[in-house]
Amino acid sequence: MNKYRLELDPSGRESPWWVTIVALLLAFSLVAVFILATGKNAATVYAKMLTGAFGTEFGLTETLVKAIPLMLCGLGVSLAYRIQVWNIGAEGQFVAGAMAATAITVYLPGLPAWSALPLMVLAGIASGALWGLFTALPKVLFGVNELIISLMLNYVALQALDFVVYGPWRDPAGKNFPGTPAFTAAESLPVWGNSRLHMGLLLALVAVVAAWVFVQKTRWGYELRLLGANSEAARHAGVNIKSYAVLVMLLSGGLAGLGGMAEVSGVAHRLLYGISPGYGYTAIIVAWIARLNPFGIVVSSVLFGGLIVGGYSVQTLGLPSSISNLLQGAVLFFLIAGSILGKVRVRRREAA
Amino acid sequence: MELFTQLLTAAVASGTPLLFVTLGGIFIEKAGIIQLGAEGLMLMGAVTAAGVYLATSSLPVTLLAVLLVGGLLGLLHAFLTVTLRANQIVSGLALTLFGGGLSAYLGKAITGIPLSGAVPKFDFGVLGQVDLFTLSSLALVVVLQIAFFHTSFGLHLKAVGDNPATADVMGIRVQGMRYFAVIAGSMLMGLGGANLLMVFSPTWIEGMTTGRGWIAIALVIFARWNPLGALAACWFFGFLDTLGFRLQLAGSTVPPYFLKMLPYLLTIAVLILVGWRTQHRMSRAPQALGIPYIREQRF
Amino acid sequence: MDGLPAVEFHNLVKQFGTVLASDHVNLSLAKGEIHALLGENGAGKSTVMCMLSGVYRPTSGEIRMNGTAVKIHSPKDAAKLGIGMVFQNFRLVQTLTAAENVVLGDSSPFWRTRRWMERKTKEIEALALRVGLPFAAGRPVAKLSVGEQQRVEIVKCLYRGNSVLILDEPTSVLTPAEADQLFTTLRKLKSEGKTIILTTHKLKEVMAVADRISVMRKGQMLATLDRAQTSEREIARLMVGQDRSPPKTRVPREPGEPLLIMDKVTVVSDRGRHALDEVSLTLNAGEIVGIAGVAGNGQKELAEVLAGLHVWKSGTITFREFRWKGPSVRGSIKQGIAHVPEDRMISGLAGGLGSVDNLLVKSYHSDERANLGFLRTALNRLWSQGLVEQFDVRTAHLDAPVKQMSGGNQQKLLFAREIHQRPHLLIAVHPSQGLDVGATDAVHNLLLGLRAEGRSVLLISEDLDELLLLADRIVVLFAGRVMGEMTHERADREQLGMMMAGVT
């Protein structure tokens, strides 16, 4: 008979911050095994990823460019996750926003910057929010699990993207390149110097602050936090769960849609096939690793932006860029395990 | 008639991989656990099948490897969700991301290399040629149907998924059954991926499942957690999958993208329908689905 | 009743941390006996029965069966010894049929054809019929009535060949007719030599069916009596005990204007029964009205209706001359009704949030706490600090998660929040449950303080001492009905005890 047993601390104190660090280290070690298996030196690979992402000015700006959509999408899903609404549809909401912003350039061409850009921003947010609403309605009206709906809508959005990019909005002068004609300067977000770093970063940071203020300082943010902490107590206070499910999906979708707009207007300057290399999915990890905290999301989105850029930079070493996906998944696994194991205590087994 | 058999064959070919995954999903969910890693498991099964077969040209070894990989990943998910009682949704998502990344990584070397003649076909006369996977899937449906509804094992499984506290009190080993279900079900999901590769489109391409794993998860609900229901649902969806392609061949003017949307839109429609109809009745879903089981402290 | 006793408890002790739930309990049960175990909630009946059925392990002491000492470490052990327990929340899988539930846990045979299941179903139905508890064994349990579900539970025990049956508050879910049927069955089983233990608080039933009666109070076994040689009065007296030390300062007051008038209010519970049955109640300003009764007799629904959480089927509710149209949480709060719920960590406080956030729960939309939708953070913190000091809430700091506080401090925080609203009516449900003496005193003083200010309290409690101490009037609820009412001056413990147990 064991003298000791493991027991989850029922007070559920948040696992300490160093658990996140340990999880990251373990994830990198695990992937190192896979790297070694293909005969490469893991240290060289990681070093190259690091320098590629953060070592040069180009790398740094690229990392930030990648961080922008991650930040916006991550912020969006974090709001939903606060009340256990599992929005996996950030990818589709992102694409919806990108498409709506592009629609402005297609159907209202030649507008000056002071009207084009705000319109595009609004269109992006609105269409992302609408896409989010398509997930919320079946949930509150029919009790359908939002997870699968939002996921299916991702695929629908991607097909719609293909349709417009190969079809009606296609650039006739684009040879075989599946994309729309380039946006005018008025339709593109201004950039920083010679890099690709665009004003979308500002929008993202504003969104982060706005989200923080909303959650911590307003009465609706308060209701949201109360709902997330104890839905029964919230009910006793008169808070309506269903309205909040809809609200967070609108906000979530809107933020992801803004991310889509920022990507087409600030980086790609056109709508093209593969506008999102899975930002919506990476954003889930970005939000989770930051424990749904808006400022933490800034940090984790930069980290994962770096991961993506690093992944591209090691292609010269003969490794596929999907190594960053591998790392993302591994990180998430170790985080999950870590957050639970961080709460384990050793208890003495009572004498029978 | 010719067209009909063609369509049926194509529907079955496309639906069978889905069927493996859906059956696996049913098995796992009946025990009360959600396995969202289906997409990742399929991809890992496919890349394992491609890699091992190209290396060994031996079907038995390939299948064994696929089962092993699926089983290991399933074990990981089981450990996280049953023993550590982690959030099942996040764990499943992690599995999908990890499986997606790992399969892309491992598959880089073998991308685009076709497999051929890997899977033996059996002649069924008027029904044409039926491959091994399709046959096994049908056998599996029968076996699972019997197992779930006509054995004590099936009864215990249902109890574990509906009311683990009661099952525990009645002496059923809840943790053990859940581990078994998750590992076995994940193996089936990996097998579905192998099937997709070896029969349906015999060349590894990164992300070749294009969301089929997710559709299968929705089909578990559509099938009402019933193996026979899964058979009907998967073949129906397989039919839809090939319909788009056929319609295009037939000169339809509808852009193919909308046809490709059909499976996903239909999944949504189906879920809404099921949700709407079960609103006032008790859902067929395992009652304890997604809720970790914590045994009441015995002091 | 000859031979060795079927079950014996020798100095059974159960300690949970510092709480002594069972205090050297001794009991002896014979074969072929129906034994009633009486006591209020928290008296220790459930703990003792849980030790017998393997859910808890005794801290010390011995259990003997047929003269031999046994160790019961799990429900499985208990089952092997032939002990079966029917809990108040049934251990049934709702989606399986009754028959499937009965055979659950049997691994043999592995292969079960439809015919096998049909045969078993008929077998079980026959068994049920034979003992006088018929039900349709082929129906899913979810489709059976609550009374029928209980029968399934009992038949489950019989099917397993249990010789000792423990029934936990069995008639709480039955209609009077069903209860009579149950008793007939129990008598039949007794004649077959089974030992039956009933835990209950209902005197009438005890006198109808039990052979012997044991009364527990505060974890101790007070006495075991032969039914033939005792009376309802004697048992009631044992249940509620003697008067304790004289009450604290409580100034008699003249009650003010009527505040709340409930007229023949009927509330249907989740299970479809009348949780409140034509209840009429009046509350005046500056009054503490105590609602006495064992939990489960309608108190929860009463509190919920007044808090705006539950709809009522018929009757009228008038508060401050305003007749209510329907339930509304916000409405109740606005009209000045405060609510300290029974399970503070489930319905009252959000454990993961800090004191400030928890204090804001009822007032965050008021002008003092928020301006144009923005919470006045700095002001709210000051306000929280003030409240925490005023109510002597001990916490590490204002933002420490409330779940880390002791029960007493949590309760004080809850009271701080509710009282601060300057309510006309405070509904306090089991407010001192689980609190130590100091915290209990603090709570009592708060309630008396409200009364002194001319506000009213609806005090729902199982603790008669508390009610006798604080309440101006005590109303007894039993099975959803008002059994009777007593003023503080005329309060008679014994009488109250009898009313609580269902005797008029």
Explain how this protein is built.
The complex is a heterotrimer of chains A (352), B (299) and C (504). Chain A has 352 residues and is mainly α. Chain A contains 13 helices and two strands; from the N terminus they run E-H-H-H-H-H-H-H-H-H-H-H-H-H-E. Chain A has helices at 18-37, 42-55, 57-82, 90-107, 113-142, 146-166, 200-217, 219-229, 231-236, 241-268, 279-289, 294-313, 323-341; strands at 4-8, 344-348. Chain A has a two-stranded antiparallel sheet with strand order 1-2. Chain B has a two-stranded antiparallel ribbon with strand order 1-2. The termini of chain B are far apart. In chain B, 52% of the residues are buried. In chain C, strand 19 (425-429), helix 15 (437-452) and strand 20 form a beta-alpha-beta unit. In chain C, helix 14 (407-420) packs parallel to helix 15 (437-452). Chain C starts with 6 loop residues before the first strand and ends with a helix. Chain C folds into three domains: 7-240, Rossmann fold; 256-336 and 426-504, P-loop containing nucleotide triphosphate hydrolases (Rossmann fold, 3-Layer(aba) Sandwich); 346-421, no CATH class. Chain C is α/β, with parallel strands linked by helices and 504 residues long. Chains in contact: A-B, A-C, B-C. Chains A and B meet through helix 6, helix 11 and helix 13 of A and helix 4, helix 9 and helix 11 of B.
